[in-house]
């Protein structure tokens, strides 16, 4: 499935939630979708937990000398 189709499905889900459930439902669906996206990236191996907890100095050191 292409990223465009996935984006369209996500947009439709947010639209339905906003229309039928109001703004609170829209925010809930958006937040759960973002959490699901991050968990999916973890499961695929694209993200590591340490990526969220490194300091700026650690990130700079990983790039190597300039």
Proportion of residues in helical segments: over 70%
Mean pLDDT: 79
- Main sheet characteristics: none
Poorly predicted tracts of residues: none
Distance between the termini: 39 Å
Give the structural class.
mainly alpha
β-sheet strand percentage: under 5%
Outline, from the CA principal axes? elongated
Question: Tags for this entry?
Answer:
66 residues, mainly alpha, 2 helices, 76% helix, elongated, DUF2273 domain-containing protein
Write up what this structure looks like.
There is one protein chain. The protein is mostly helical. It is built from 2 helices and no strands. The chain has helices spanning 3-44, 56-63. The chain is elongated and about 50 Å long.
Brief rundown of the structure:
This is DUF2273 domain-containing protein. With 66 residues, the chain is an all-alpha fold.
Present the secondary structure layout.
Blueprint lengths: L2 H42 L11 H8 L3
């Amino acid at each position: 499935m292409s990223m465009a189709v996935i984006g369209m499905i996500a947009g439709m889900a947010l639209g339905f939630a906003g229309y039928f459930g109001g703004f609170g439902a829209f925010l809930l669906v958006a937040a759960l979708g973002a959490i699901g996206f991050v968990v999916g990236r973890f499961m695929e191996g694209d993200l590591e937990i340490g990526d969220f907890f490194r300091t700026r100095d650690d990130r700079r050191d990983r790039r190597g000398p300039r």
